[in-house]
Design brief:
Low-confidence stretches of chain A: none
Low-confidence stretches of chain B: none
Helix content of chain A: 40-55%
Distance between the termini of chain B: 16 Å
Shape of chain B: globular
Largest sheet of chain A: 5 strands, parallel
Distance between the termini of chain A: 49 Å
Order of helices and strands of chain B: HEHEHEHHEHEH
Radius of gyration of chain A: 21 Å
Radius of gyration of chain B: 14 Å
CATH superfamily of chain B: Cobalamin-binding domain
Largest interface: A-B, 25 and 22 residues
Helix content of chain B: 40-55%
Mean pLDDT of chain B: 90
Number of domains of chain B: 1
Mean pLDDT of chain A: 96
CATH architecture of chain B: 3-Layer(aba) Sandwich
Strand order of the largest sheet of chain A: 1-7-6-5-4
Shape of chain A: globular
Oligomer: heterodimer
Chain lengths: ~475, ~140
């Protein structure tokens, strides 16, 4: 496998494509020319890029969340309800777990069972099984754009069908999918399948169809922001190389507002810098924010407060998408009413906030920005050094070496040596930096921040502190 | 089987089945590592066969199985027999997580999984400190 950061030629892409479309019977329905014509016929309010652009121009953020039922009829019922009762501007298709593992036969059984029982027995919408024609019925029934939401080691067929069906945004994130969504697939394989889907998006872009890719790097709960940010920056260079033109960065926020705002600011700044360094001059970027909890509160008052905080953070960070979990997250799969209440809460807050300029103390933001920027540069520059300037080669080596690490990877080949912990103010610091290539100044900063909390609490920070940090917000405190 | 003191302190950990929920076991691994145990982590989506093979390879003192899908009743029975068949007669088997869907009294859950050959069963919310204390006691 030739894994360097170079654009797949059309020949390579179309050769691989034959194998991809043969993975399931609905693959043969996909006709790229027809799909491009269909996308061009969509009104702008049904396309993610213009809708996100409008949010950016108006300084507004739109609520988004996962939504997925087993059958086309149920999916239409859910999405039209969220539009009407939840006042949604932006919709999503959550793909079911069987499809994410490419087990389309199992998803087929789930559809049959759901039809028999009259209720969805799948935890998402099986895009591949319903095919292009199935999803076309969904997009025709709504007035908002629909984005795909899922993670898979091999997203190729889901994306072929999802985009041809009329989705205008997706979530193809190789490091996230390698670290969190499958424990047995090699990083090289995941990078190759994602290179294909980014090339597919690039093909649509070359033919005048704007699609928005997204990238979050890794699940951010309990992780200092420089690590997911570095994982985003290396990947957007891979996406841009394949011809992706619109990228939504997704950040996990922790509730320490200066650190959260600094994360958003530094990410936008460094992304522009790295695009320019590698010659990608025409990327339009967007941002989404989610308040990242390990455990969501069950009690309704607290659950609504989490939605409020998420909306406030999206506003402060200048995000176009307010990526929320529904108020029923702690209970299980939400009902359509749960989702609509959640959207209404976010909309209510957003309407009150959107015309106002609110800011977090600029000195605090500046202090956090300086630190996170230094950390990210150390990591990304080491990745590029590992690859002699090639970001794909560098990323593969860096993940093996723990220079790009993740405390909560499912894949046993990851070193998982880093660990984050909160300081006394609630910002996330490195308790253990593992093999991250940090300078002594950075390490001293984190050590001092941890010592301040130890002094305050009168004890060493240990695994019990880690557990309490991860659960703190769901108990209604930033740091205990 | 001869086990010296060092190998007894080697633990095989992982999440059984199709599930990818990893945060709990990763924090436990971190705590166990700090407490001086050697951890051989298999990550998530681990089969019974993989747990047993790894335990043989590293001559482990215990296998720590995590399960958060609620499907432990179908995933873990038979693990003790596989260990015995493989000659791991005295290996400790610990299990923790969200083991069953629905609200079953903990005593019943514990009794059921102990009957399947697990030495210790832990409910959600167990402190890593409890597991460390138990391991030290059981491995003495």
């Amino acid at each position: 496998m030739d894994l360097r950061n170079r654009k797949l030629s059309e020949d390579e892409f179309f050769t691989e494509r034959q194998e991809v479309l043969a993975q399931w019977k609905t693959g043969k329905e996909v006709d790229l020319d027809e799909a491009i014509a269909f996308h061009k016929s969509l009104p702008p309010h049904k396309v993610c890029v213009p809708v996100l652009r409008q949010a950016k121009a108006q300084g507004e953020s739109y609520a988004i969340t996962g939504m997925g039922k087993a059958t086309v009829e149920e999916q239409i019922e859910l999405l039209t309800y969220i539009e009407k009762e939840g006042l949604a501007n932006y919709l999503g298709t959550t793909v079911d777990s069987f499809s994410r593992q490419n087990h389309y036969q199992e998803a087929e059984k789930g559809i049959a069972e759901s039809m028999k029982k009259g209720r969805s027995t799948l935890n998402g919408f099986p895009i591949v099984n319903h095919g292009v024609t199935g999803f076309r019925r969904v997009i025709e029934a709504v007035q908002s754009p629909i984005s795909m939401r899922y993670g898979a080691a091999d997203p190729r067929l889901i994306d072929e069908i999802g985009y041809a069906g009329g989705h205008t945004a997706g979530a193809e994130d190789a490091l996230m999918d390698f670290w969190h969504h499958h424990s047995k697939v090699a990083l090289e394989t995941v990078i190759a399948t994602h290179r294909y889907v980014h090339r597919l998006i690039g093909y649509y872009e070359e033919h005048g169809v704007p699609l928005c890719a997204s990238c979050q790097g890794l699940y951010g709960a309990g992780v200092p922001p420089s690590l997911p940010m570095a994982a985003i920056l290396v990947q957007i260079l891979m996406m841009a190389e394949q011809g992706v033109k619109h990228i939504r960065y997704h950040i996990a926020t922790h509730g320490h507002l200066p650190q959260d705002v600094a994360t958003a600011d530094v990410l936008r700044k460094l992304a522009r810098e790295y695009y320019a360094r590698f010659g990608y001059h025409d990327i339009e970027d967007f941002l989404s924010v989610s308040f990242s909890l390990v455990q969501y509160p069950l009690e309704p008052g607290s659950a609504f407060a989490v939605v409020f905080m998420n909306t406030l953070m999206a506003h402060l960070c200048g995000a176009q998408a307010n990526d929320i979990r529904t108020v029923a997250e702690a209970k299980g799969i939400p009902t359509k009413e749960d989702t609509a209440y959640t959207f209404r809460t976010a909309k209510f807050m957003e309407n009150l906030l959107k015309t106002q300029k609110i800011s977090v103390d600029p000195h605090d933001v500046e202090a956090e920005s300086r630190m996170v920027e230094q950390e990210v540069r150390c990591i990304v520059d080491k990745v590029l050094e590992f690859g002699d300037g090639d970001v794909v080669v560098g990323t593969i080596r860096a993940v093996q070496a723990g220079v790009l690490d993740n405390p909560f990877a499912t894949n046993p080949t990851s070193p998982c040596k880093v660990m984050g912990i909160k300081d006394k103010g609630g910002a996330i610091r490195y308790l253990n930096h593992g093999n991250l290539p940090f300078t002594n100044d950075i390490l001293t900063f984190h050590k001092e921040k941890i010592e301040e909390r130890e002094k305050k609490q009168g004890k060493k920070l240990d695994y019990d502190t880690l557990v309490s940090d991860l659960l703190a917000v769901s108990r209604g405190v930033l740091v205990e | 089987m001869n086990r010296d003191k060092t190998s007894k302190r080697t633990l095989v950990t992982g999440v059984i089945g199709e599930d990818v929920h990893i945060v709990g076991i990763r924090i436990l691994e971190y705590a166990l590592g700090e407490a001086g145990f050697k951890i051989v982590s298999l990550g998530s989506q681990v089969s019974q066969k993989e747990f047993v093979e790894a335990a043989i390879e590293v001559n482990a003192g215990a296998i720590l199985v995590s399960s958060l899908s609620g499907h432990a009743e179908t995933l873990v029975p038979g693990l003790r027999d596989r260990c015995i068949e493989a000659g791991l007669n005295d290996i400790l088997l610990y299990l923790g997580g969200y083991l069953q869907i629905g609200e079953t009294p903990w005593e019943e859950t514990e009794k059921k999984f102990k009957a399947w050959g697990f030495n210790r069963i832990y409910p959600p919310g167990t402190s890593p400190g409890k597991v460390i204390t138990d391991l030290k006691e059981d491995l003495m």
